[in-house]
Amino acid sequence: xxxxxxxxxxxxxxxxxxxxxxxxxxxxxxxxxxxxxxxxxxxxxxxxxxxxxxxxxxxxxxxxxxxxxxxxxxxxxxxxxxxxxxxxxxxxxxxxxxxxxxxxxxxxxxxxxxxxxxxxxxxxxxxxxxxxxxxxxxxxxxxxxxxxxxxxxxxxxxxxxxxxxxxxxxxxxxxxxxxxxxxxxxxxxxxxxxxxxxxxxxxxxxxxxxxxxxxxxxxxxxxxxxxxxxxxxxxxxxxxxxxxxxxxxxxxxxxxxxxxxxxxxxxxxxxxxxxxxxxxxxxxxxxxxxxxxxxxxxxxxxxxxxxxxxxxxxxxxxxxxxxxxxxxxxxxxxxxxxxxxxxxxxxxxxxxxxxxxxxxxxxxxxxxxxxxxxxxxxxxxxxxxxxxxxxxxxxxxxxxxxxxxxxxxxxxxxxxxxxxxxxxxxxxxxxxxxxxxxxxxxxxxxxxxxxxxxxxxxxxxxxxxxxxxxxxxxxxxxxxxxxxxxxxxxxxxxxxxxxxxxxxxxxxxxxxxxxxxxxxxxxxxxxxxxxxxxxxxxxxxxxxxxxxxxxxxxxxxxxxxxxxxxxxxxxxxxxxxxxxxxxx
Amino acid sequence: xxxxxxxxxxxxxxxxxxxxxxxxxxxxxxxxxxxxxxxxxxxxxxxxxxxxxxxxxxxxxxxxxxxxxxxxxxxxxxxxxxxxxxxxxxxxx
Lengths: 584, 93
Prior knowledge:
The structure holds two protein chains of two kinds.
Chain A: E1 5-13, H1 30-57, H2 62-75, H3 78-91, H4 95-111, H5 115-118, H6 121-135, E2 150-154, H7 159-162, E3 170-175, H8 183-191, E4 195-196, H9 202-205, E5 211-215, E6 220-223, H10 227-248, E7 264-269, H11 275-281, E8 286-290, H12 304-318, E9 323-326, H13 353-359, H14 361-374, E10 380-384, H15 390-410, E11 420-424, H16 427-431, H17 433-439, E12 442-445, H18 447-455, H19 473-489, E13 493-495, H20 503-511, E14 516-519, H21 524-531, H22 536-548, H23 552-566, H24 571-580
Chain B: E1 6-12, H1 21-31, E2 37-42, E3 45-48, H2 52-56, E4 65-71, H3 75-87
Helix pairs in contact in B: 1-3
């Protein structure tokens, strides 16, 4: 799921079937059939080269380029090319049917291989589908050359397809495959294209040019909407537009409370290319740069240079605004094939995050070197995830220091005083926060993990999801403890979990003494409006009362009841909080 | 016994992830322009070393033993090139 609503005409994309019916050609036509196949290969080669050129020009990620090189090699692969020719010449198969047989042979070949290898069958499918389109003279629908605004409906979008997607003609998309962390879903979020992924069989139920509504917020897809649906969605779109323009108008205003306290509102990002959204929403910097996505959806581990490019791009563009880079937080719910993460019985309590980095020391060292090198702009901080004790922290810092030594010897510049922070997301870290504060330059509370570890709740488990309570007194007291420890040690305390993105929760966090929030970029304007409408003194007094409560449900009611007083005269804003908070 | 125009080598895959997409591409690229024919054998499975699909579907993981056989005027060069890539762990790890 992603942001926004799209209403448009369906464009079925690349549902061209690789499984075609048997066909034979006359003996006389065998040569021309072989030639037809060769032409289709050549045409495909040109298309891939073109695409590669454009990807290069746009400076998109290197992994995509690797995929395209793989495709070019497959176009010359004897096991495909010679085999198709052989089937045409010896069995007098039509080129399409011959290709279809070869794809099936390839599928069998890949079927029993270990995951890492079997997955590459996708490349064979992707490239053969292109050849098939060219053979049939189907004008290969390129997402780049859509002549009008459309909603793309596809079985799956390959990286080579999404690469050519342009936001001005692609209104939104729906795919049958994919989950929340799939390449397609991440891309949709990053480019703010309304999308719903994982809708099985959708391409069977829609027709080309049919009207379709994609609601990225609720994950709803309406095919052939009636007048009522259309009216409701247009209204939703209008409302979004109004809200958007109003919120963007406060982009350049300072995030300061009525009584003069500056509250830092930073953005969480996943890709270097998201720097634009940061500027668009007026973030004070990047409070959390998640680096996992550099490692996901790819076959190889990114090199130091590749990582450096990515970190450097963000740091350089935003300097002097601060950028907090979190080292790899892999494991738990995110699995990277390039890292060969083993299956564990209890992954959230297993070898994840900083523990994974210690187990895979070279990956950790490579990442820290890349971060250090990008720190020359003096605005980068490094942050370790899932610190549970002082030993992990000192070990991580030892590695960091040894790399500083290395870079010094190599004469490579970096910031000697790069600030070091830790995610506070394990209850043990909360309890020893004063000790950690002696070594650290800042705290960052990861609320998602802190809630699940404190309450022992996996919110992905439907049966107990209601126990996942961000406003549980235990959770709020934990956060208050971290805020206190930070204040005593005079180090900043940031909250970068989902709670910071929820306006109602953000209000509670400020009440508990947190003065830095990092959130999804789109959430910033609302929170900024809240900040600009409150008196911190009043809010803190309210926070004291919150901490005296015994039940999450009471806290919620108390909060909702207090809104008119806390946000005096801002009925419109209260209304908006009710609409956008998941708790309200 | 090696005869002229024939060369053979045995190698153990050392990099952690084995002969996956990127290493396989490097391997094919390293010998693609040579004239000789090159076969790679893993546990009785034989693949054309100039075919990316062939090399990939050997699914050679870390620790697998590969026998490389090249036949043609530049056979030695081919075996050397492949051996070098494998011993350098394809620039990984």
